[in-house]
Amino acid sequence: MLEARGSSLREELVALREQLKKAELERDVSEQDRHETAEALQRTETSQAEAELLVNRLRAEEATSRDNLAKLAALNEGLAADKVELHRTIAHLEEKIQHLDALKADVEDEKQIIRHELIKTEQVASDLKTQKTTLDTSLIDSEQIKNKMEEDIQELNRDKIALKETISARVVKFRIRAYP
What we know:
By secondary structure, the protein is mostly helical. The protein is built from 1 helix and no strands. It has one helix spanning 2-178.
């Protein structure tokens, strides 16, 4: 019985050793799994932290992009308003240009009328100058004729006086002879 019991104890010991080895192996495997799980957890936590940093950075970039988009929208609205105002200004300036072109055409017409009137006036002035020259010549001729006629009148008056004196002297002589 002792042998059977020794054999049974040996079997039990072998079984216990196997269970111990199995338990140690399971423990080692479990330890290895725990270690790998810890590393995986560490990597996951690191990845999660990096992902959170990336999400925070992306959120900040999104906020910046939204701010920039809002600024661009405001700038675009301002540019649209400026464009509308510029179109109004251009339309107003085009109206002014058309008005000035019309005024310029009117001024050109007036200029042509004035030029025509000036030419007519210059012609009239030239005609008047010619007439004046003719009249001046006629006046000089008339003055010369007048002076000649005055000289002739003075000579005739002298002749008349001389003739009267001659007649008076003859009348006196005649009376003297006729009425001694």
